[in-house]
Design a protein that fits this description.
The protein is of the alpha/beta class. It has a single domain, classed as Rossmann fold, CATH 3.40.50.150. Helix content is about 30%, strand content about 30%. The protein contains seven helices and eight strands. An eight-stranded mixed sheet has the order 1-4-3-2-5-6-8-7, with helices on both faces. A hairpin with a 5-residue loop joins strand 7 and strand 8. It is globular and about 45 Å long. The structure holds S-adenosylmethionine (SAM).
């Protein structure tokens, strides 16, 4: 397990406003996500042969740690060093630090020659600061090895009612939007493209229904 900032290595300068926005968000309190795996990821990857996985916008590492616990070798990428440090600590607590790597980078620029058996992006978004999400998703498809899977999970509708005014006009992606962003060629089978309802629990313990856009595709060659 290691955490490093690859900005110098790639020449990448993370979009300062996006990175600052996320750092401020993570600084609000210790742990802004549940630390548990996202339900869509757990069900989509259950039973797949384990291999190398890449988690785009991994946040505090809930999905990274869960995948590593299933036997995957996982690299998580995120803008926020604070979030990645939490992910690293969670990996150590779970005893999976040898199968995890956390990398601070801006996915708008990050690149790799490696190919992965699973590339996943759970709620890779940045409100209210724009990121080139469609371009990031398109390039993510190129990181998948032949025979590997690509999973994109997104909020298909506002996840709660108290969005600030600036976000009320935000366009939440449908599965068709994300398929359009991915621009998969005929070397892919689309296995799932649907909106799934899910019961979410707030930090206060209140439950409400949210809608997830789910796209799962397998690279055939
Ligand atoms: C809503 S959080 C989701 C975190 C995690 N995947 C989860 O489901 O708990 C979105 C994450 O994407 C990251 N992110 C947004 N834009 C990014 C970018 N351009 N490069 C890298 N990470 C980014 C943010 O820092 C944040 O941690």
């Amino acid at each position: 397990m290691h955490t490093h900032d690859d900005a110098a290595h790639t020449g990448a300068a993370a979009t300062p406003s996006a990175r600052d926005w996320w750092e401020a968000r993570y600084a609000e309190r210790d742990g802004i996500w549940s630390g548990r795996v996202n339900a869509v990821l757990a069900s989509a990857t259950w039973g797949l042969p384990v291999g190398r996985a890449l988690d785009l916008g991994c946040g505090e590492g809930g999905d990274v740690v869960w995948l590593a616990e299933q036997g995957w070798d996982v690299t998580g990428i995120d803008l926020s060093v604070t979030a990645l440090e939490r992910g690293s600590r969670a990996a150590v607590s779970a005893g999976v630090e040898d199968r995890t790597a956390f990398v601070a980078a801006d996915l708008a620029r990050w690149d790799t020659a490696a190919r992965f058996d699973l590339v996943t992006a759970s709620f890779l978004q940045s409100w209210p600061v724009e990121i080139p999400r469609a371009d990031i998703l398109h390039r993510a498809a190129g990181f998948v090895a032949p025979g590997g899977h690509l999973l994109v999970t997104a909020h298909a509708a506002p996840p709660h009612d108290d969005l600030p005014p600036a976000l009320r006009e935000h366009r939440f992606p449908s599965p068709e939007d994300d398929l359009g962003a991915l621009r998969l060629d005929d070397g892919w089978d689309v296995l799932v493209a649907e909106v799934r309802p899910r019961t979410a629990t707030t930090p206060e313990g209140d439950q409400h229904e949210v809608l997830d856009s789910v796209v799962l595709a397998r690279r055939t060659r």
